[in-house]
Amino acid sequence: xxxxxxxxxxxxxxxxxxxxxxxxxxxxxxxxxxxxxxxxxxxxxxxxxxxxxxxxxxxxxxxxxxxxxxxxxxxxxxxxxxxxxxxxxxxxxxxxxxxxxxxxxxxxxxxxxxxxxxxxxxxxxxxxxxxxxxxxxxxxxxxxxxxxxxxxxxxxxxxxxxxxxxxxxxxxxxxxxxxxxxxxxxxxxxxxxxxxxxxxxxxxxxxxxxxxxxxxxxxxxxxxxxxxxxxxxxxxxxxxxxxxxxxxxxxxxxxxxxxxxxxxxxxxxxxxxxxxxxxxxxxxxxxxxxxxxxxxxxxxxxxxxxxxxxxxxxxxxxxxxxxxxxxxxxxxxxxxxxxxxxxxxxxxxxxxxxxxxxxxxxxxxxxxxxxxxxx
Length: 375
What we know:
Elements: H1 2-6, E1 57-65, E2 71-79, E3 86-92, H2 102-112, E4 116-120, H3 138-153, E5 158-168, H4 172-181, E6 187-191, H5 196-202, H6 210-230, H7 265-274, H8 285-288, H9 296-301, E7 315-321, H10 327-336, E8 341-346, H11 353-356, H12 363-373
Parallel strand pairs: 3-4, 3-5, 5-6, 6-7, 7-8
Antiparallel strand pairs: 1-2, 2-4
Helix pairs in contact: 3-4
């Protein structure tokens, strides 16, 4: 139980957490977010990017539609002064992040190394389309990867037989799911992987009991009535904690506005990225707000690793920090697909270190992996 408290799975006391359904602010009440909306905060780099564009890389803002007709916003990173058709990578950021954060940093580095790289905002988030903002769908997010492959494969500078995927954190599970279902993706790498369906429906290290899972389903079902009656979409925790009495205790923010003195270590590392100049972005859900409160419903219904065997004979590289609380996700996938997935553990790295700590992100190994598997 103490371990769960340290991971933020037992709700802390204070204004950021509430067990009241009606107390959760309606969608838009806190931030007035809309597609492409900007907010307050400081970021490094030009145009709100949290990293500096390499001088040998050209970045272009692009748009394309997925097969559901939703416009996906992305940044295309292309190495300067190159010729011929190049290998290409679709790069996804963490769950609740935007392309100006971690995925852009990875895409910039891969382009510096000679790849065409595409960092995108998942549907309903960032600058991408979707009328309801900040709602997540494992199905549609998985589709976003394949639509990004569509886009890259139509570019004259891209060799469509050499397209891979780099997933980061919570979109990594959907990157693997997309690759299993789309053989145009020739190789996939992940960093700090999360299986968001497993996380939301079973809790960290599957700690939810059958009774707790039912309480979450009941909570989400009641919230749907409230949303339907109000004609709005409330915000709430996508990974739902319980209070000391065993009741669901959702929060209306992913992270607190200010870090409490007694914050658990996992909240601290996420806060240090999303809520500080290091990684803050006004369009990032993790930086400013929360997902829509009923988001977990579709993740209860959509298992992500069911067809992981179909990835073979293509290869996956799973990168995880030795000190990451999420490490077990990568270890479990590797155990499920030993002939397909290799596991790379980074000493001294926690989960968030692999978002932007260049001295810890194994770019040389990732480059070698894609070079060998996109041949």
